[in-house]
Amino acid sequence: MNVIYTVLFAFTIGFFIRGRSTAVALYLAGEALVFVYQSVNLLIEWVDGSDAAFGGPFPKYDPAGLAGYGVVNLVITIVGIGLAILGARIGAKRAARRDVVSVG
Question: How far is CA 56 from the centre of its chain?
Answer without folding.
Answer: 28
